[in-house]
Amino acid sequence: MLAVASRTRYKSATTILSPAMPFLLTTATATSTTSPRPLFPSSPRRQNPTTPHLRPPPPARRLPGFPAAEPGAPFLPHPPRRGMASLAAAAAAAEVTHLTQRDAAEIDEHLMGPLGFIVDQLMELAGLSVAAAVAEVYKLSEEHTSVLIICGPGNNGGDGLVAARHLYHFAYRPSVCYPKRTPKPLYSGLVTQLESQSIPFIPAEDLPHDLSREFDIIVDAMFGFSFHGIPRPPFDDLIQRLVSLSVIRNSDKKPAIVSVDIPSGWHVEEGDVDGGGIKPDMLVSLTAPKLCAKKFTGPHHFLGGRFVPPPILSKYGLKLPPYPGTSMCVRIGKAPSVDISSLRENYISPELLESQVMPDPFDQFLRWFDEAVTAGLREPNAMALTTVNKEGKPSSRMVLLKGVDKQRFVWYTNYGSRKAHDLSENPNAALLFYWNEMNRQVRVEGSVEKLPEEESEKYFHSRPRGSQLGAIVSKQSTFIAGREVLQQVYKELEHKYSDGSLIPKPEYWGGYRLTPTLFEFWQGQQSRLHDRLQYSQREVDGSTAWHIERFSP
User: Which residues does the annotation place in the binding site for (6S)-NADPHX?
Assistant: First the structure.
């Protein structure tokens, strides 16, 4: 359930961030609109409410759908994307340890012996890692929704069953082929869980001859690192079916093959010995890559199974890439080159209708801002600020919104910066808020003026002392010889004010306020038929009123 702060919004209230609940909006009790109170968190660590998954019911469908939205109902976002975080982690992983079959088996024994793990825990984390890696690369879309998970009789098959459950909750449409079921309570329980979700189990003999016609992604969870010998029926035929998919030249029709830990049929250390094995597009190594992973030539290699404790790392001298944030998987090696022209997403959102929006654009903005904050988006107050100098040259940069009320948007900066110079020559600007996970953006245009000195002074002293010192140190947009120059001046100021005395606000630092003359609310939709509702001011009966118009996307 969404954790939200109960609140009442008065027409003249100003939005702030509650010091007690960082990044949850509350409202001021004052009735004056002359001085917007700042938006600032008391801690850099945000409290992200848990957002329920948006998932359609189990019947087959090609596109994930959103539940019908009531007028004014909040829009729940897609799960945050982690692509750049994974790439950053991969860059730090210059060397990665690859395990022999013997070491892999010993690590499992050690985990489930003196370190207290049970196979159920390891299987759950491994399967979640596989599902997370699939969702990382093959994002849910019209092209990637139907998934076939082929499970073997051992632990690798169990990992596949767990992955199927998580993929279902990620809104994919999984099917499972599980020819040789293991009659142990753990595996029987996993099967029961999938059956309760109406996930179909397809016998091997009933699979379509051409798997590419029915499935967008195929997860190979047949055999793991402990397998040796020659695959027996029906797995020998299933492996050959996956091998035959590699000859499909049209990438638009070829399903992606994802192998769990070891491509089935490969030698755990020597890899695809005769060259006639599965050629997976993705390999999700578990615990640590096995030696055969060095022979993997597909575009996507991930590490999963975020459960390796320090004693294992130390005993086996493992070098593994760090997992980014709360992710259950991390990319190994470089990401494949991408055709930029092919990067696109088919947005799926509730319609944005004139009958549903607020008549006042400030109220509509605060509604969307509340929803972005409540959904736990990172820095929902980040906005692109565009200014234009007297020569007509534009410049843009990201700044943080620090206050908003029924009249204006407020931010703070250095008065010697380029944006400040632009505004001194041309006091007009545009703001852009982009909430990617919610398929939303808001444009605001208007005139800009400096805040009164006392308002800037008050906000300056509400900032952390480190930020106050940083504002003094940085002569924004001026040349410096190196980062060490900033660090040296900062240390000197830190020592100077180490007694806790008041840090004076520099004269070259303060706030601006933009008074809007135009708002545009944008909601991404399928086939690029986006919603664009624009608020502009009109003269009506001698007074100014907001007028709403729909624009073509």
Answer: 155-159, 224-230, 261
